[in-house]
Amino acid sequence: MEIIVQKFGGTSVQSKENRIHVINHIKRAIQKNKKVVVVVSAMGRSPEPYATDTLLSLVHFSEEENTRREMDMLMSCGETISSVVLTSELLAEGISTTALSGGLAGIITDDEFSDATITSVQPSRLLHELNTHNVVVVAGFQGQTPTGEVTTLGRGGSDTTAASLGVALEAEQIEIYTDVEGIMTADPRIVKRAQLLQAVTYNDICHLAYQGAKVIHPRAVEIAMQSEVPLRVRSTYSEDPGTYISRSLNDHPEISIKDRVVTGFAHLKSITQIKVHLKDEQRRQSIVFKTMAEAGISVDFINISPSEIVFTVLTDVAPIAVRLLEEQKFSVDTVENCAKISAVGSGMTGVPGVAARIVTTLANQNIDILQSADSHSTIWVLIAEKNIHEAMNALHNEFGLHETYDNFKNKPPTSSRNSNM
Ligand code: ADP
Ligand code: MG
């Protein structure tokens, strides 16, 4: 039995009109003699009536009550509704279909409500249904604890459902259908000239996704990567192949680009920089991080010197972070409204001058770098959020990512490296 997993995001299943495109993709897979496991998100985004945020606005529990369990029961409804609506429309087309909740499809999680982690996948019921149906529609984003409590998987949860089922079923491919052509060299909402990436490695996509490219959830990429099930990210509204994600670009020699220094840029907004002044109190450095860890606040961009510790946190937790540090008698300054830009590309490993090009490009735009960091395949810079458009577009141009794919492919392999110094 050859199985394909197809995941459709919120806008793809939002309206009957959009779902016609969804059904056509499913039909094409059936025509190729595949069994199709379809994973759906909730229909549309707020204020659509069955979107997750709309459902959440129906209740107002008081903060003191521990109602995370009930909230997950509510939040999971969006995907349940979506799975049954699509099932009814597939049946109307004469396609043999049945619907399953995440729990029945075998998604078993821990009990970390609203952000549960999948601990195992038990696909026996799903496999049983696939024996007698061409299509099984699974409600994404939801799972079940071993004792039967409904849980949800957090942001991007339906991507994670699709990847986990794909791996458990040893699917031929996991296809993530969305409202853009595939994975682009930057978020097309910020960089108008962003280009489609036809092939990328799990590694590059993982980094891009962790650094803000929300087109696919990084956890889903990690899960697929462990078992090397290929992923494809593509548009619901066309038959174009989109982006193929696998271990190595050599998997598809006809579409590989070997001289790409930067694969893409990702950005994250709503970041606050925190500066903790230490004076003669170096020995208290560890208390800063212990305080943040105990409060469950994740820190990024850490720079430590004898007189100062600088790091960043997400803006929504910044007031708590500052209060906790001041309670420990630290003197603290903050810079609000920051954004992080990440240049990602395995191709930059060992290539000199990439950081210099980034710094020079931003300097030419009069954009200050507030902090920076790098690893072998990523360079991060922190800038003021108001500069994000200018910075992303300038960097994207500097690394030639606006050039069409064919231009890229026809360039002599050394051309982009010669100018790296
Ligand atoms: P879905 O509801 O289908 O899961 P998402 O909104 O989660 O869709 O993801 C698709 C969106 O991701 C696009 O509309 C796009 O604005 C955004 N995005 C961010 N970075 C990228 C990127 N590098 N390539 C493509 N899309 C991106
Ligand atoms: Mg998504």
Summarize the structure in short:
The protein has 421 residues and is of the alpha/beta class.
Percent strand: 15-25%
Tell me the structural class. Answer: alpha/beta
Query: CATH homologous superfamily of the largest domain, by name?
Result: Acetylglutamate kinase-like
Overall number of domains:
2
The backbone outline, from C-alpha atoms, is globular
Tell how many strands the DSSP assignment holds: 18
Q: Under CATH, the topology of the largest domain is which? A: Carbamate kinase
Q: Outline the biggest β-sheet.
A: 8 strands, mixed
Which residues sit in consecutive blocks of at least 5 with pLDDT less than 50? Answer: 407-421
Strand order of the largest sheet: 3-6-2-1-9-11-12-10
Bound molecules: adenosine-5'-diphosphate, magnesium ion
Q: Could you give the distance between the termini?
A: 53 Å
Q: Assembly state here? A: single chain
Instruction: Count up the helices.
Output: 14
Any idea what the radius of gyration is? 23 Å
- Helix amount: 25-40%
The whole-number mean of residue pLDDT values reads: 92
> Judging by the overall fold, what is the CATH architecture of the largest domain?
3-Layer(aba) Sandwich
Structure description:
The protein has an 8-stranded mixed beta sheet, sandwiched between helices. It has a 6-stranded antiparallel beta sheet with strand order 14-15-13-16-18-17. A two-stranded antiparallel sheet has the order 4-5. Strand 17 (371-374) and strand 18 form a beta hairpin. The protein is of the alpha/beta class and 421 residues long. The protein has 14 helices and 18 strands. Helix 6 (157-168) runs parallel beside helix 8, helix 7 (202-210) packs antiparallel against helix 8 and helix 11 crosses helix 12. It has 2 domains: 3-179, Acetylglutamate kinase-like (Carbamate kinase, 3-Layer(aba) Sandwich); 264-398, VC0802-like, CATH 3.30.2130. The longest helix is centred in the N-terminal third of the chain and has 16 residues, at 16-31. The chain has helices at residues 16-31, 52-56, 68-75, 77-92, 124-132, 157-168, 202-210, 218-227, 285-294, 318-327, 354-364, 388-398, 405-410, 415-418, and strands at residues 3-8, 35-40, 97-100, 107-109, 118-121, 135-139, 142-144, 150-152, 173-178, 199-201, 231-235, 243-246, 264-277, 300-304, 308-314, 331-344, 371-374, 378-384. Adenosine-5'-diphosphate (ADP) is lined by residues 9-12, 41, 178-180, 183-184, 186-189, 213-215, 264.
